[in-house]
Amino acid sequence: MKAVLHYRASEGFRAELARQAAEAGVDTAVVDETDDAAFAREFADADVMLHVLKPVTAQMMDQAPRLKLIQKLGVGVNTIDLASARQRGVAVANMPGVNSQAVAEMTLALMLAVLRRVTYFDPLVRAGDGWQPDLAVLDSVGEISGRTIGFVGYGEVPKRLAPALQALGAEMIYTARTARTDAVGRFCDLAEVVERADILSLHIPLTEDTRGVIDGLALWRMKRGAILINTARGELVDQQALCEALTAGQLGGAGLDVFNGEPVDPADPLLALPNVVLAPHVAWLTPETLARSLEAAFDNCRRLRDGAPLLNQVV
Which of 6, 51, 147, 281 is catalytic? Predict the structure, then answer.
């Protein structure tokens, strides 16, 4: 059995992949997502694709006649052509929960970085001007304590994050498909969460129903000076409307790990805004997450080889 990891993997990622692949008895190849020639060569005899971020199309599947499984290293499968996989008899599986701890911690980091203007002060200190900041910036910082955190969605990430935020003195409200008996905070409809939150944090999958759920209208219904955090999917937010709301001062800031288009266009005006903290879709990416992800992936490789039911099969 051969598995191809389609990702620009670090040395540590490659080492963990090699270790777990050897234990599972699976041949592996690692191909940078930008190297189409190497991908075509390695993928031609692959049984399993280990998928991270680059969209998986029908044309890609057709390059691998032996392909039996597309294993998502993560949760969201919006980057996989599920209908084409189904037509070709290719199974698709994901792994809910493996990256929840990492994403929860990154979400908290973005909240704090925006509130405390970390990306403003860091270069200022490095330039020797840290003790002469713009006084208006000092007036714009704040604490989590006393603020209302609104979660859109209440899965594993908010479940881990809410107790920590509560311990810091925040009030929690959330919206989800149904009220959760294990939730910290009060269940509300989406409109109330949007209007009441001092920090609005997104934790829902991207579907046709959720695409653009935070549009221009929603952004202007938020409290003036509120903060938006997105570690879920970029397309949940109207990015142009977000930029306009941040520029106009309607929002006080944003912490973003995901975007409408990735990589982000360097000319995107969002990148020039001083009240935004940005990360390149790495909230999930820690050595601990990678180890858990590969363990789940190779478990499914063994199951595929042995004819056993796959875990977390989507297609």
Answer: 281
